[in-house]
């Protein structure tokens, strides 16, 4: 059985450490900093870091790769369309990579960056490692791609099973839910989630992983076809939005300055 632990880094990053107790091997997703991983390995003698999985090239996701690779010999896998330090395996949409005995499907999700990928494990309890594309209650900023690309990427992820566990890489949930409530002030699921996450964070707990079902109920960027969301976006912009992409574009712009 694979265990998953969040290693905090910087101010709000999570490095997801996948652990296989049977083999004492582990893998890490997006190690922007080597120190938390090396500290974990030091506290767990006998364990080997076998794989480093990268979703995109931003420094807070790849900054620790070369040090970890040099000290552990771990294999580095990452998107083919981006420059990833130390990359051993270049991955494209539809590829399947085996890590700790898990088959992880590669999904292209451009928008935040042009070559961003996500890793999806299809199982009874599916898992999604989505970097900075889908967040709990929100989505990533669009730095290199277009709103259409990000919207399409989110729609691809939204089509996965509702019980999929969502492992994103930042603790942005509270601020995302405050925005979600501004978009849908009368959505009880958002109000309930905001109360729950506020309590979790006050107690020092993380808000992740989420599930896709919860995102469908509370994440405005997955709810752009909902009449209430469209109405609020149009009220904010004081203009008509012809389709879901226009609503998404409006929400992303609104969130940038929220």
Could you please describe the fold and organization of this structure?
By secondary structure, the protein is of the alpha/beta class. The chain has two domains: about 1-90, Metallo-beta-lactamase, Chain A (4-Layer Sandwich), CATH 3.60.15.10; about 110-258, Metallo-beta-lactamase, Chain A (4-Layer Sandwich), CATH 3.60.15. The protein is built from nine helices and 14 strands. The strands form three sheets. It has a six-stranded mixed sheet, covered by helices on one side. Strand 3, helix 1 (about 35-45) and strand 4 form a beta-alpha-beta unit. The chain is globular, with a radius of gyration of 18 Å. The mean pLDDT is about 100.
The residue-averaged pLDDT reads 98
Order of helices and strands: EEEHEHHEEEEEEEEHEHHEHHH
Shape: globular
Total of helices: 9
**Could you say what the CATH architecture of the largest domain is?**
4-Layer Sandwich
CATH class of the largest domain: Alpha Beta
Strand adjacency order, main sheet:
1-2-3-4-5-6
Please, what is the CATH homologous superfamily of the largest domain? Ribonuclease Z/Hydroxyacylglutathione hydrolase-like
Structural class: alpha/beta
What CATH calls the topology of the largest domain is Metallo-beta-lactamase, Chain A
Task: Indicate the percent of residues in helices.
Answer: 25-40%
Q: How many strands, what sense, and barrel or not for the largest sheet?
A: 6 strands, mixed
Could you tell me how far the N terminus lies from the C terminus, measured between alpha carbons in angstroms?
Answer: 41 Å
Strand content: 25-35%
Number of domains: 2
Total DSSP E strands: 14
């Amino acid at each position: 059985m694979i265990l998953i632990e969040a290693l905090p880094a910087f101010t709000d990053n999570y490095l997801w450490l996948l652990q296989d107790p049977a083999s004492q091997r582990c893998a890490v997703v997006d190690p922007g900093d080597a120190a938390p991983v090396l500290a974990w390995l030091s506290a767990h003698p006998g364990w080997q870091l076998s794989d480093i999985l990268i979703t995109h090239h931003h420094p807070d996701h790849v900054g620790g790769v070369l040090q970890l690779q040099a000290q552990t010999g771990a294999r580095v896998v990452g998107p083919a369309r981006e420059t990833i330090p130390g990359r051993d395996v270049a991955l494209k949409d539809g590829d399947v990579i085996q890590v700790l005995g898990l088959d992880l499907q590669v999904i292209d999700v451009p928008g935040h960056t042009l070559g961003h990928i996500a890793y999806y494990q299809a199982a009874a309890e599916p898992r999604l490692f989505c970097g900075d594309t889908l967040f709990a209650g929100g989505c990533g900023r669009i730095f290199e791609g277009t709103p259409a690309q990000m919207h399409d990427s989110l729609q691809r992820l939204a089509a996965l099973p509702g019980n999929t566990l969502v492992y994103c890489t930042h603790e942005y949930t509270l601020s995302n839910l405050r925005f979600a409530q501004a978009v849908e002030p009368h959505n009880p699921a958002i109000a309930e989630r905001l109360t729950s996450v506020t309590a979790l964070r006050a107690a020092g707990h993380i808000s992740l992983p989420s599930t896709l079902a919860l995102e469908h109920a509370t994440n405005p960027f997955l709810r752009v076809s909902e009449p209430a969301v469209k109405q609020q976006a149009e009220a904010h912009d004081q203009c008509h939005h012809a389709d879901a992409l226009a609503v998404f574009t409006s929400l992303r712009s609104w969130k940038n300055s929220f």
